[in-house]
Structure formats: structure tokens, C-alpha cells
Specification:
Strand content: 25-35%
Radius of gyration: 13 Å
CATH superfamily: YgaC/TfoX-N like chaperone
Shape: globular
Structural class: alpha+beta
Helix content: 25-40%
Number of helices: 4
CATH class: Alpha Beta
CATH architecture: 2-Layer Sandwich
């Protein structure tokens, strides 16, 4: 999955209210990290955030579904972010914070 640099730049700009993040190219996509923890990813110019029972309802309210891995034949814990949320920096920062908190909890397991 190719990822355009323009799209990555746009997403990182939209996340500016969330604070400092790092991006790393990985597996044909881009991982989004805060304090060394991956909370989101971009693949094929689709932005996804980490999801669990804590924020699943936010995504479901927009009709979103988990990223599906054909290789693993199962849903992944990353869901596409609705465009309405991406375009609203304040709301996107709230969604990213929830995903970051999931990454923190996941690390403790």
C-alpha cells in the first residue's frame, strides 16, 4: 500500500492539537507514535486509529469497521477515522488521545 507524503503531512498537521508525534515507515505504510507508542497508522492513504471497547462506539456511530487483515483472516485493532473527524482538529485530538491511552494500556499487558 503506497502512502503519499502529501497525505502523511496533512494528517500530521491535522493532529497538531494532539501534540508532538513521530511517524515511521513500516510494512508499506506509516505508523503514528507518541512517546514511542503506536496509536495510529496510515496505509493506502487511509488514516486509522487504535480501537478497543473504550472508543469503539465512537467509530461505530459513523458506520466504521475494523481494518481487516486478509493474511490473518481477522479484524485488526485499527479503524478508519471518519473524514468529519479528520477535518476537525479539536475533535481529532480527542480521538487520538483515546487511541493513545489504549496504546498505553496495551503496553502494560
Amino acid at each position: 500500500m503506497a502512502v503519499s507524503e502529501t497525505y502523511v503531512t496533512w494528517i500530521t498537521d491535522q493532529l497538531s492539537e494532539f501534540g508532538a508525534i513521530e511517524t515511521k515507515r513500516m510494512f508499506g505504510g506509516v505508523g503514528l507514535f507518541k512517546n514511542g507508542l503506536m496509536f495510529g497508522k496510515i496505509g493506502g492513504d487511509i488514516f486509522r486509529l487504535k480501537v478497543d471497547e473504550y472508543n469503539r462506539k465512537d467509530f461505530e456511530a459513523y458506520g466504521m469497521k475494523p481494518c481487516f487483515s486478509e493474511k490473518k483472516k481477522k479484524g485488526m485493532p485499527y479503524w478508519e477515522v471518519p473524514n468529519e473527524i479528520i477535518e476537525n482538529k479539536e475533535e481529532l485530538a480527542k480521538w487520538a488521545q483515546k487511541s493513545y491511552e489504549i496504546a498505553i494500556r496495551s503496553k502494560k499487558l
